[in-house]
Every structure is written in C-alpha cells, then in structure tokens.
Amino acid sequence: MLAQETAPPAAPPSWRAGRGGRVLAILWCGQFLWFVVRPVVEEKADSTPGDWIFLGWATLVATWIACRLGMWRVTAGRSGVWIRRFRTVTFLPWRQVSRVDMRRDGLLEFFDGHARPTAGLYGPARLNRILGRPDAGQGAADILTIMARHPRLRPGKDPDRRLRGTPFAVWSPLALGIVALTSLIF
After folding, report:
1. CA distances from 87 to 13, 82, 90, 168 (A)
2. What is the spatial distance between Cα 105 and Cα 121, in angstroms, rounded to a whole number?
3. Residues 6+ apart with CB under 8 A from 15
4. What are phi and psi of 119, to 5 degrees?
5. What is the Cα–Cα distance from 127 to 102, expressed in whole angstroms?
6. For the packed helices 49-70 and 19-32, what is the interaxial angle rounded to 10 degrees?
C-alpha cells in the first residue's frame, strides 16, 4: 500500500551519520588521544619499537571506529546501493537486495541471498523509544526495501562520486599524522 502512494525520489537518497554519531566519534577520538596516545608520547624515552607499532595499529583501529560512528553513508541510486566501508565503497545491485532490516544494535542489514552486509549505525529502536525520538533507521530500512521490491520507485539516476563518498581509509593517514605530530610536539 505504501508503495502505491510513494513517488520515486527526484535525486538519489542518501543516509548518513547524524549529529549524535559525529559527537560520539569526536568523543571517541578525544578519549583515544587522552588515554592511549598521551601516555605513550609522554614516555617516549622508554618506548620500544613495539610500543610504536602498537600505537600505529591502535590508531588505525580507533580511526576505523570513529569513521564507523561518525562518517558512514548509504546511498541508493538507479542501479543499486552504495555502502561506504573502510577500504572501499561497496556496491550492491538491486537484483541482489531482497530486503533491508534494522537490527537491534542499530545497523541496517541488507539481505541478498548469500552474505548479509551491514551498513549505517542508527540509535537502536529501544533507545529511540525511551528518548521519544523517531526511528530513522527503521524508516531508512523501509524505504530501501520498497526500492528493492518496486523498481519504478528507484531514483532516476545514480549518485555522483561526492554523494557516494570515499572509503574511510582515506582518513587513516590524517590520524597517523596527528599521532606523529603529537609525539614531535610533546
């Protein structure tokens, strides 16, 4: 019934992290710098090469988590869905997507027959009910499912590169540069 009342979007729809996710990512980076980077940098005279290797690895992991919290993006186009990931932007053609569900942990799960890729990171439904907020994740899952099942409701064109986004790994050198700069300054 909803599919009959819905018109196709004029432009490719895109869902991304909101203010809450971005604030959470900033807080995550701040606590990482304070509790992990600062102690290693302050004791750099006693640091071993293994400490610096661990710090580089931990920085990459912390960058991945921060990007997963505050920089995710899902974009739907005429030919499929683009999901921003750490190393690539994954493309799922519509013929592979049977439905999209909102998981209990806040991730969108794409059902495509074999694998079940996940994307996005919304506030869990239970948390949204407690806070009295609309469930944006379930709304996105419903729209993507309707687009997967009804080809006439898909956008008329595919998104451009700017709208699809770049992989998270692009930001990793920036994080490693900040850690290196911190070690040089202090």
Report:
1. 23, 13, 9, 6
2. 8
3. 73, 74, 75, 120, 136, 140
4. -155, 165
5. 13
6. 170
Please tell me which residue, 171 or 103, carries the higher pLDDT value.
103
Residue 3 has pLDDT above 70, yes or no: no
What's the pLDDT tens digit per position in 6-25?
677 878 999 998 888 889 98
Rounded percentage of the chain residues whose pLDDT exceeds 70: 92
Which residues share a beta bridge with 102? 108
* Best CA proximity match to 25, nearest among 69, 84, 73: 69
Pull the structure tokens for residue 181.
């700069």
What integer pLDDT is reported at residue 66 of this predicted model? Answer: 86
Closest of 120, 123, 97, 122 to residue 110, by C-alpha? 97
Please give the average per-residue pLDDT across 127-147, as a whole number: 89
